[in-house]
Design a protein that fits this description.
The protein has 161 residues and is an alpha+beta fold. The protein folds into 2 domains: 38 residues, no CATH class; 84 residues, 2-Layer Sandwich (Alpha-Beta Plaits), CATH 3.30.70. Helix content is 31%, strand content 21%. It has 5 helices and 6 strands. The chain has a 4-stranded antiparallel beta sheet with strand order 2-3-1-4. Strands 5-6 form a two-stranded antiparallel ribbon. A hairpin with a 6-residue loop joins strand 2 and strand 3. It is flat and about 55 Å long.
């Protein structure tokens, strides 16, 4: 992968001048490369990784990983079924995977029941869905290469007899 992309992947806020110094190139050259990557869709966007456990977010959501078994469609394989599934607002990520299941979805809802209703009312009834397995995320330790710090919990004094 291009060195500019590697730097931006680790730090989306890296400034053109800093990248130019690191790579010993002219800032204008770096700026042109970044614009080209954005135009071509290589760089899709920039985002912050938020540790939601440390921020009280009103209406915070529940995330689930859903494994999906599907029947591929003739002449288009998994792509059309995946496209139908990832078009749902609840689906934040959709991956074709190897192994027992065909797709892995990351789904968000305001609570467990919202995610359960999504699976029961929207996902499972789709024509090409053979089965699903849902795993609710309980706690995150690392996301996008970043270790997440957790709130200090009440420390109990050990009692020995």
């Amino acid at each position: 992968m291009d060195e500019i992309l590697e730097i931006l992947e680790k730090n989306g806020r890296a400034e053109v001048g800093d990248i130019a110094k690191m790579l010993k190139k002219k800032p204008e050259s770096i700026k042109q490369s970044i614009k080209k990557y954005e135009k071509e869709g290589v760089i899709l966007g920039y985002k912050a990784v938020i540790n939601r456990e440390l921020v009280k977010i009103e209406g915070s959501s529940v995330r689930a990983l859903i494994e999906v078994n599907i029947t591929p469609q003739k002449d288009v394989g998994f792509d059309k079924v995946a496209e139908r599934i990832y078009s749902f607002a609840e689906v934040t990520s959709c991956y074709l995977i190897s192994g027992t299941y065909d797709l892995l979805l990351i789904v968000e809802g305001k609570d467990l029941n919202t995610v359960a209703r999504f699976v029961a009312e929207k996902l499972s009834p789709l024509e090409n869905i053979k089965g699903t397995t849902t795993h609710f995320l309980l706690k995150k330790y690392k996301e996008d290469g970043m270790i997440l710090k957790h709130r200090e919990e009440n420390k109990r004094i050990a009692i020995s007899y």
